[in-house]
Every structure is written in structure tokens, then in C-alpha cells.
UniProtKB/TrEMBL annotation:
The keyword Oxidoreductase does not apply. Residues 133-143 have a biased composition (Polar residues). Residues 1-26, 73-143 are annotated as: Disordered. It comes from the Bacteria. Residues 145-226 form the LytR/CpsA/Psr regulator C-terminal domain. InterPro entries: LytR/CpsA/Psr_C. Pfam families: LytR_C (PF13399). Gene3D superfamilies: 3.30.70.2390. This is LytR C-terminal domain-containing protein. The lineage of its organism: Bacteria, Bacillati, Actinomycetota, Actinomycetes, Bifidobacteriales. It comes from Bifidobacterium pullorum subsp. gallinarum.
Length: 231
């Protein structure tokens, strides 16, 4: 006889392998929450933004300005090394200054004993003053001094002509005259009375082109110019 009954799960007798509960068992995962589904996209966006920010910081140099903790520690270490070097240099400078002070003290002590640093005796102040030459009076050109120009050349008006040369450079008291007797020099000469007139006499000689300048006693004016020959 044909088997007409439809066999079902319950048609068979149970055995050791029929532990699963009765009814269908789901094979699909349940529906995930919105946060779980969106999280991968958020992570990708954040990573991309951080990568772009890092690339911009490297390209623009702004990344070097970030106060990284390890950079601060390196700077502090370098500053400490520099401070130690400065302290060592200062100590060396103090030692050098101390040596220099000691040498100066020794030199001062040697001078107090009447000797220099080489052991040579130093003259006292009185001896040094005696050895120095006497100071010479200050020499200045006096354009107001009286100057007499004597013409012994035989050329009429030569003394007046040379007097005008002196007046043109600023001399205010120049007299042109002829010889009045007495000895005449052998060359053109500028005579002066006192040592204080030397600078003025030399200036007059340079102005008139006369090579000889001599001090003379008994002349009528502080400075006398005598022409023997026209120049």
C-alpha cells in the first residue's frame, strides 16, 4: 500500500542528536544600531582629517612650533649645558683677574721699594724733575707786533712793497724805512728781540721768503726785516 502520510520532523523518534529546541532556529544576525553602522565612516573621516593636518603642519613648518614635551626637555638640557659652560668661563676669568691683580700688587710693591718690575732702581720724583728740561715759553704768532722793514737794496719803494705783503696776511703795524746808519747784515735777514717773538719772526720770514732768522739786541722794534738784495 502506498505511503500517503507526509513525513514531518515529528514523525521520527528522537535520539541523542535532537538537542536543539523545537521549531526553526535563526541563521541571520540581528539588526545593528545606527551608532555601530556609522562608526566606521566617522573613523575614516577623523583619520583623513588628522593625516591632512599632519601634512599641512610639515609643509608649512607649523609643526615645529608645537611645544612637544620631549622638545622642551631637550631645550632645558641644552640650556643647562650652556649655563655650565658660562660658569666655567666665568671661573676662568676670575682666576685670570686674580693673577693679574697679584701681578699688579707685586709691581706696586716693587715701585714702593724704589724698583720697577725688572728690578731696576727708579729715580725719585725730585731727581726726575731735575732731569726734565725746562719748559719753553709758548710760541704764538702776534700779528699786532711792530715790524720795521728796512730797504738797503737801492730799489726805490721796495720796503713799502714788502710791507704791503705783510699787511695782506694780517700784520697791522708794519713800517717801511731806509737804513739809518749802523752795520748791515750780509744777507737778507729777519731780526727779533725776545724769544717770545721767534714764532712771529719765523712766520714773517716764511711769508717774505727769507731764509735767515736771528735774535738781535738793540734793534728799534721787536722785529726788523733787513733787505740787502731784492728777491
Amino acid at each position: 500500500m502506498a505511503h500517503t502520510e507526509k513525513e514531518t520532523y515529528g514523525s521520527y523518534s528522537t535520539d541523542a542528536f535532537d538537542n536543539p529546541p523545537s521549531g526553526p532556529v535563526g541563521v541571520h544576525r540581528g539588526r545593528r544600531s545606527l551608532a555601530v553602522r556609522v562608526a566606521p565612516f566617522v573613523v575614516v573621516i577623523v583619520v583623513a582629517a588628522l593625516a591632512g593636518l599632519l601634512a599641512w603642519g610639515i609643509a608649512s613648518g607649523e609643526l615645529n612650533k608645537v611645544p612637544w614635551p620631549w622638545a622642551q626637555q631637550s631645550a632645558q638640557t641644552a640650556q643647562g649645558d650652556q649655563n655650565r659652560q658660562d660658569d666655567a668661563a666665568a671661573d676662568d676669568g676670575d682666576d685670570t683677574q686674580a693673577d693679574a691683580d697679584a701681578q699688579d700688587d707685586a709691581a706696586d710693591q716693587g715701585e714702593a721699594d724704589g724698583q720697577d718690575t725688572d728690578g731696576a732702581a727708579q729715580p725719585d720724583d725730585a731727581t726726575a724733575d731735575e732731569q726734565q728740561p725746562e719748559s719753553q715759553p709758548e710760541q704764538t704768532v702776534n700779528y699786532n707786533t711792530s715790524v720795521r722793514v728796512i730797504n738797503a737794496t737801492g730799489v726805490n719803494g721796495y720796503a713799502a712793497q714788502q710791507s704791503g705783503v705783510l699787511q695782506s696776511v694780517g700784520y697791522t703795524s708794519v713800517i717801511a724805512a731806509n737804513p739809518s746808519g749802523g752795520a748791515l747784515p750780509s744777507v737778507n735777514v729777519v731780526w727779533y728781540q725776545n724769544e717770545t717773538d721767534l714764532a712771529t719772526a719765523q712766520n714773517i720770514a716764511d711769508t717774505l721768503g727769507i731764509a735767515t732768522v736771528e735774535q738781535a739786541a738793540g734793534i728799534a722794534d721787536p722785529i726788523v726785516v733787513v733787505y740787502i738784495a731784492a728777491q
